[in-house]
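User: Once you have settled down, look closely at the record that follows, taking as long as you need, and be ready to discuss the fold:
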Amino acid sequence: MVNALLKWLMALPRRIGWGRALSAALLVALVFFRAWDPLPLELLRHKIFDLYQNTEPREVESFPVVIVDVDEASLDKLGQWPWPRDLMAELVDKITKDGAVAIAMDIVFAEPDRTSPDLLAKSLPGLSPQARGEIESARSHDEIFAQSMKNSRVVVAQSAYSHRRGPVTPAQSPKASIATIGGDPKAYLPSYPEILTNIQPLEDAATGRGLVTIRPDSDGVIRRVPVMLSAKGNIVPSLGVELLRVATGQTTLLIKSDEGGMKSIVVAGAEIPTDSSGHVWVYFSRHQPERYISAKDIIEGTVDPTRLKGKLVLIGTSAIGLFDVKTTPTEPVMPGVEVHAQLLENILTQSALKRPSYAVGAEICLALALGIAIILLVPILGAFTVFALGAALMALMIGFSWWLYTRYGMLVDISYPAISSFGVFLVLVFTNYFREEAQRRQIRSAFGQYLSPTLVEQLADDPDRLVLGGETRDMTVLFSDVRGFTTISETYKNDPQGLTSLMNRFLTPLSNAIIDHNGTIDKYMGDAVMAFWNAPLDDDGHAARACDAALDMLKRLDQVNKEREAEAKEAGQRFMPLDIGIGINTGECVVGNMGSDIRFDYSVLGDAVNLASRLEGQSKAYGLPIILGSSTAARISDEFATLELDFIRVKGKTEPEIIHTLLGRRDEVDLTRYQALHQQMRDMLQAYREGDWVGAMKGVTACRKANGEFRLEALYDLYRTRIAAFQESAPADWDGVVTLQTK
């Protein structure tokens, strides 16, 4: 079973194509890539969400949360930080008096106030015992501050840390009880082993305790704020949630979760949706000065009491030297206390952004759908059409994502589907490109030595014109062989390199003649050449092209012989001219890749091929350089001067064939002499086939007189000898057909 599956998987790329197979593999890999969610992908997604918020930040219509700010002006007026706790008590008292619903401290008071009388007395040397006792008897600033907190509803801040950074008190249970539905959410919440708390009197006096710890994303930007955290084994609310609980007088917080993590938190009957790790995606507004009241204005009593009446108050710092600044999608620098304020505004106005738990699955499904569509459509519609459709679809996706954000506050990532689908598209385009380039290289390699450069480029540009594997076509085939090559090669028996040089010297011009006339060289067989026309590219005039090539071969060989003769004369050597015989035939053939699984050639097979080879073999017997089959001669008769030679049955065939010779193009021969010779030859052949040996012999004599520049002496010598033999012993069953005994 396993072996069958492996074989199926290994054969799959060949079935569907390597481009589609690689694209499908990439698509699967991209699914795992999204599940891994590496930092670059996460940052890209976040930056797109930031762009949304910067383009359309949250509009603020009212300010239910007020920030009492320890700003630069307050430090200038009231002194350096930290302030004495009795001053902080005065600040809390005045805020409470002005009607604030509840107060939250975005400040941790982890150490006793060093300006308290008891601690101050110990730090001052030289005091008399009486003076020291009077000072120490004064009330502690921390007690004053704790009493003010008891007289109000105050939430103190705690800070969670992964490592110890100062005095850490033992873990304390939250002021509120935590109820859960759907299981224990601790495993999904941000977890910290330690908490930095306030001094015990303040912890005891506070109505609530909340964590101010916010972990920014990997690029340092705060986009999500935890509403619940796990610290020192307890589930602890954040500062903002605890402030809501205290303000509404609740004693319990309800956490809803499922197998995927935390879903929401319920405060005073209001459900606050969260992501699986207990975070809320804050929909940030621009920085609004209206949220802030300077702490010095509260102390000095210059603030309109209606600014605080019925509001939630956060006491925090914006002074640069106190280092409580954050980066958000809408502001490069924002006081940390405002992050808590904006979270509370999101909760109270139900405007927090939503990143549903199913968002990742939906984005992966969208990426898969787009990738599969591209894999299916690119080979069918073409890369440009699919790219245009993809661009339009991508614009639609961006518009849909923007609409979800502006209408429903939902964050949907379009970067991952865009990247994955574009990656699949690029793989398909490049694999198709490399495949086509490889195909072009293969075509150039396969046909570069056998076709003209023009035809090779046509095939490379349009490989579909090449049908491989066997195709039936009407074709013209040419065979060429050197006569007497064995004798010539004997003279080079001690110089094989010289023989090789000679072969290259005469085969090169013959090959060029074929290629220049759009022929395809099938193979070289020693001193022989095989070529064909009308494959792999269509050529309606293939018979004429082959005849032009044959005439050109003779001209080029004549030039080679002249050069060799001059060289031999100069070197004082014997000159042996090269002479070739050419057979040409036209008919139905099968052309394609022929051979075995390990080696094959683009070649041609068929009866017409065999006959062409036999005709080349008979050229020596008839003393002519070119012999044509009847089909070839019939097709070129309007352009070329041909002459019927004989009615023969070649060895190995049962059907006879009328053969012809090629004298030249009609516009290059003496038509008057050609027509006279043509008529004389017809008359001679008629008498010969009728068994009129006397008339046939007279016809041979007449033809010899009309021969002129056509050099057919050897042909007429053949007929004179044959007719003379028939006169002495005529065949009993003469039908005009000569059966040849040799190839």
The chain has 24 helices and 27 strands. The chain has four domains: 2-55+358-438, 65-115+139-349, 452-636, 666-743. The longest helix spans residues 415-447. The CA atoms of residues 72 and 319 lie 5 Å apart.
